[in-house]
């Protein structure tokens, strides 16, 4: 975006009237158990004006990776309603239904649930110096087959961590479970002291991931345990510690 355009935009912002999106989703992720016919997603319009909302499901792509070219008709979910209006201070339920039959049954699959919240534009002369901000919210949507454990919090003890000396140090995370694990706020401990490690992010089911550790090599070499947060089914962070192999 040209710099002159950005300067002009920020110069005009104090003169503009804003219409911001105000629809809130209950929860920060969506879990779809395979044995349920549908899952309900609750929305609330906390604003003072009606909002037009569109919802859809996209393939999941890793941050920084090219967007998947999967066609809309190949997405194994339907939403009802996909487009609707929510009046101020009212709610809306979206019904999410799985209509596919070819997702893996021994591990979770992940998608994005999208919500586009478009605030109303004013009528008549009020449109002068008006800036409308539509918000696209994205939540991870996990399809959980029947064969995959529903007791997600009990699975954390199956994760394994080990240090590998390669190009400095790498932390190897082994996830033998059928569930995705999102791991955050990594810390290494040695002799009562700690240093922060790099972000791990999401580790796929039945896979391993190597995370490069570029800093604090002398400390990491002596580390005996680590502390990390994982994100549970409700989007809450839970702190756990592991002994390093």
UniProtKB/TrEMBL annotation:
Transmembrane segments: none
Family note: Belongs to the periplasmic pilus chaperone family.
Compartment list: Periplasm
Name used for this protein in its record: Molecular chaperone
Signal sequence bounds: 1-21
One GO biological process term: cell wall organization
Gene Ontology CC annotations of this record: outer membrane-bounded periplasmic space
